[in-house]
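User: I'm putting together notes for a lab meeting next week and I want to include a structural view of one of the chains we've been expressing. I don't have a solved structure, so I'd like a prediction I can at least talk through. The sequence is below, exactly as it appears in our construct file.
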Amino acid sequence: MQIITMVLILLLAVTVSSFIVRLSPVALPLPLIQIATGAIIASFSPFDVSLDPSIFFLLFIPPLLFLDGWRIPKEAFFLDMKPILMLAIGLVIFTVVGMGFLIDWLIPAIPLPVAFALAAILSPTDPVAVSAIASKTPIPPRLMHILEGESLLNDASGLVCFRFAVLAALTGNFSLAKASWTFMLVAGGGALIGIVLTYTINLANRWLIRQTGEEPGVQIMISLLIPFAAYLTAEHLNTSGILAAVTAGVTMHYSDLTGHTLAATRMQRRTVWDTVQMILNGIMFMLLGLQLPRILESIEEIAIDTGIASLAHLSAYIVCITFALTTLRLIWVWASLKLTLFGKKGNVADKKSFPRLLLVTAFAGVRGAITLAGILTLPLTMLDGTDFPARDLVIFLAMGVILLSLIVASIALPILAAGFEFSEPVAQINKETVARNAAASAAIRRVEDLYRGIPNDQPESLVQMEAAMHVIELYRRRLAHGLRQNGSSHHIRELDVERQMRIEALRAERDQLYQLRLNRQLDDVLHRQLVHEIDLIETALTKQKQH
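Assistant: Thanks for the context. Below is the predicted structure for the 547-residue chain, given as structure tokens.
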């Protein structure tokens, strides 16, 4: 009963925090509000919410990474694969080595292997926090795709490095050759499991659909279970559950391209996953806030155990580590972008954007859920039964870096990203127009084929012909608008105004339907059906407006 009550409180807090951000006259980053809300709940709640890292990883990480892998634009991901890999793998190794030696030198109470473990768990970035911070001042889509791709891969590389560092701290032995081979096995095995498992499930699912038909609710449940199946299978086989969840999401995307799921399934599934994403993201930051009071209470004990004089010294260490992380990221981003995006002529239209691009990418290195969950998995004792060295101190420093990186990014990113443009690759330009025109032309050809096949001697022939001509005319008008749109801003504005008028007309229709229902001139079933039709059309028009 206590657990259920606490879950309901957290769900309510996630909802309230969203309204606080929307109602605030000042741009407040949602993650910070949720962390603060979690700290308030922990301070006044009678419940003791201790975070079990293994449960945290299982409940939160697989579905969120699966969704990221599913939804991230694949063409953009592969197009910018070089900078993504340099950030996701190269930057992680650069951070682990650089920060490991720096932390060991800066804080003598932390042994070198433990310093490397802290550096490794601080290396993964959190795109959820970045997108939430930048929601009111959006980061250019291409740069956001690079940051998302980085975070998808650096979670696995950072955690693998973290495990090697912890093992070295426990045993006192480390072999670079063995670690490299193990990394390949763990990463490659996890990726392979995610691909094979998802492909097999979807293959079996399609066979069952052919036998029984497609039920949207069942399909949604299958999509919700796949990331957990991939993660648990990979972990059971001692490979990377995180990479298994990511590749499961990528495989799900390509499976959708050939599966031809029903429109109702796609729409309902999207809504369910959007809700799941909002809830899990919110609760993750709430849980971070719930840990704050307990960590703050242990400061005195940490100071005594490590010989650090005061909270001021601990805070100074947090500032130094955060500054060093940002500096190392800045250096690596400068080198990697110079070698990849800006290394050849024509790759980026405007090279004047490079300094600003460099700063936005550097400050987007926010630490979050993976760092929190990973650092809490540090063992309590060594193999000989003694206490794990500086465990509480390392956890406190990691928590402090998470909070400080969030605060710094909340201030810096909106300023740096305001009005910033990062051009898409030349190949991406006008692809939407070409695709829309090709789809409209295909629709016209299909309806014309149907029109030619309508027999003239049937009673319904005239009705069918009129309907076919009406549909063809709609598509030809859309095609003509699309072609004119390329050459005139007037027609772009015309389409926007027409779209807005259609949305207003639909709202008027819906208002009238509600009035008819209140006057008991419509029954519930017919009312829901008619309103649902209007909602579908308005949703499509609204999304066109956003794009």
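A couple of points you could mention at the meeting. The radius of gyration is 27 Å. The CA atoms of residues 124 and 143 lie 17 Å apart.

User: Perfect, that's what I needed.
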